[in-house]
C-alpha cells in the first residue's frame, strides 16, 4: 500500500513508497487526471498564500505517448505527379514563383513580378514545375522554374535561363525532371537545340547530355514588326584588335651631335635564338575546368548546348 504523509503549514506532499512497489507515470496529450481512493482522501486546510509542493521519490518511470497524436511529416512530392506549365497560364501562382526565384537570387519583388509578367507564348516564356498540393482543393505548389528565350540568328534554338529548384527538394531528381520537361516542351514546338550558361553545375548538365559550346545572343523580346536589319545590328561578338607591332630599330638614322663629326651607327641587334612554339591549328581545346567567358559580374561561366 502507498502511504502519504501530510504536514501543516506550507503544504508539502511527501510520498513514501513501499520498496516492493514501483510508481508508473503515464503521460499523454490529453489532460492529466489524478484519481485518489475516496476512503483515503485526507482533509487538509490549505493556506491561500501558500502553494502546495509535491515531491516524488526518484525511481524508474515509463513514458507512453498516444500514437494517434504523433506529428506527421509532410511527404515529398512524387516525380510522376509533377507537371510543367507556363506562368502566364497560372497567374495566381506568380507570387509563389517570384518567392522561389528570389530565394536563390534576391531581387526587388516588383522587378521580379514584372519580369515574370512578360512571359508569353511568343517568348520569352517562363515555365513552372508544379506539384499537387496535399489538400485537393488547394493550388499546386511551385517547386521549380526555368525561362526560355529565342536565340539571335538561330531560329531552331532556345536559351535556357533562371533554372532553379526549391532548396528542400534539391538532390532528389527534381532538377533532372525540370530539364527533361524543357526538352519535351521545346521539341514539341519545333526547336532542336538548347543553350545555357552555368557557373558551378557543369557536371550536372554534362550528365544530362550537354556539351561545351559557344556564346549565343538571347532575345529579350520578339515581335513580327521588328525588322531583321535591326536584329542583325545587335552585337554578337567583339571584333578582334589588330596585332601590336614592335618598332623597327634598325631603320632609324644615326643621331648627330651638336658639334663635331657624326657618331658611328649603333651595332646591329643580336639575332633571336629562341624559337616560338607553333600555333595550334583549329579551334582551341575546351575544358570542363577552365573557361574564357565571364558574366556581367566577372564570374567565370561555361556555355553549354544540347541537340534535342
Automatic annotation (TrEMBL):
GO terms for molecular function: acetyl-CoA binding; protein-N-terminal amino-acid acetyltransferase activity. Keywords: Acyltransferase, Cytoplasm, Transferase. Residues 258-270 have a biased composition (Pro residues). It comes from the Eukaryota. It catalyses: N-terminal L-aspartyl-L-aspartyl-L-aspartyl-[protein] + acetyl-CoA = N-terminal N-acetyl-L-aspartyl-L-aspartyl-L-aspartyl-[protein] + CoA + H(+); N-terminal L-glutamyl-L-glutamyl-L-glutamyl-[protein] + acetyl-CoA = N-terminal N-acetyl-L-glutamyl-L-glutamyl-L-glutamyl-[protein] + CoA + H(+). The keyword Transferase applies. GO terms for cellular component: cytosol. GO terms for biological process: regulation of actin polymerization or depolymerization. It is found in: Cytoplasm, Cytosol. Pfam families: Acetyltransf_1. Residues 82-237 form the N-acetyltransferase domain. Residues 56-75, 236-288 are annotated as: Disordered. Belongs to the acetyltransferase family. This is N-alpha-acetyltransferase 80. It comes from Pan paniscus (Pygmy chimpanzee).
